[in-house]
Design brief:
about 290 residues; mainly alpha; four-stranded parallel sheet
Length: about 290
Amino acid sequence: MIFGDSLADVGNNNILKTWARADYSPYGIDLKPFGPTGRFCNGRTTVDFIAELLGFDHYIPPSELTNGTDILQGLNFASAAAGIREETAQHLGDQSTMKEQIDNFKNKILEMNVLLGGPQNTKDHFGKCLFQVGFGSNDYLNNYFVPSVYNTSKLFTPEQYADDLIKQFTTLLLEIYDLGARKFALAGVSQVGCSPNSLALGSQDGTCVKTINDANEMFNTRLKTLVDTLNKDHPDAKFTYINSYGLFQELKDRASTLGTFSNFLTNYPIDNNESIGGPAFYALEL
């Protein structure tokens, strides 16, 4: 089961009234034979790769387009521009927030109860599933660092904002736990200050915006602490932290050996297979 934002969305936003959509070219240009599916990527997303590594013979489908027994094979609830906070990215139009994604999950549970023969069987089924959860990027990119629209940067210092995000995230995450989930992969926030949008609006020399990345690291530090706490308090479950920030740094450090141009962050498109910085916000498959 997948909950998250544009880094994991595989088409749920296609049916929403929003600017955060990717069901048109050049998205999906390297995803043969599908083409544009709603993935904010030229090819496969991280969750697609994970599905392959876990041995699935298919990618986990968007929950909004999946029904019947197919819902037992995994569901992707992710919605581009989604955040932990309810107001995040509302200026872009509709999207499913973290809370709304959990509500959508609860609706699917009602169907699963019928298919599996009752709530306890459904919970037992969830105990065998992997739940990937990744939020926070939009709470910075499309909230805290958009002071012309949102007042969060006036209400909170970066440290206070990270604390508040983690508090809300914890409450929502434990809802998923209470529904039967026991295996969690929790993705940290990547280097949002290196996104093409952040560079275009906040960088004078093409380097990553330090104030944004510093705020992202504050969130990640608290998320890592939360993972330790959850593992201690819930011994019947396993919570794993995914270091998205560090993985992105490794890609930057290894840009030349990966065959990408040194200025890949600000020049899109260069070539289909020569960039990890996508249009405005999103990553590309190398």
